[in-house]
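Hi F.,

I've been meaning to write this up properly since the lab meeting, where we talked about keeping a consistent format for the predictions we share between groups. The idea is simple: the sequence comes first, exactly as it goes in, then the structure tokens exactly as they come out, then a line or two of notes. No screenshots and no reformatting. I'm using this chain as the first example so we have something concrete to point to.
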Amino acid sequence: MSQVYLEEEEKGKRKKIIIFIAIFVAALLIIGAYYRFLKRPKVTATPETAKASELNIIYPVSRFRLAKKTVQIKNETPERTKIDIMMKALKDEKAIPERLELYDYTIDSNGIIYTNLSGHLIEDINEPSQEIMALYSIINTLISNTGNAKAVQILIEGRPVYTLKGLIYTYKPLPYNNDLMED
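Output, unedited:
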């Protein structure tokens, strides 16, 4: 009888140890997931453009000068539509190649806008001044219309490139260039 009692008691202890270990492992997993979530950089799905009813379009007025004009929009215009309006306005002003497509874009919590553009940005640019004007027309337009943006990372067909035509280093994010703006 005492042997049966000891076996029952030992089974109870094992059961308690297994439950304790399971709770401990579950707690470790929850804590690990929590810290992993905290360290992950936050990326929003789309840049939040200014809440105004107009968009700033930065376009070339000479070989090395950019000007700003505004385009009126409705307040409730979706974010993707705002970006499409900006790209169309840049094409209308001959700031960027007509065949250029913006596949997608996003902004991270550090204020970096990532733009994924078609290869036409490289193919359709022939002069150094075109490279400067096209890049900074895109960069200055996006930054001026996005509340917390600091710089733009240009991706071509989903990949960073060192330079479009050998003049501007585009492998890292580029900030707004006020030096090219007309006074």
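Notes:
Residues 142 and 152 are 8 Å apart (CA to CA).
The beta strands are 43-44, 54-62, 65-72, 102-108, 112-117, 151-156, 159-160, 174-175.

If this format works for you, I'll send the rest the same way.

G.
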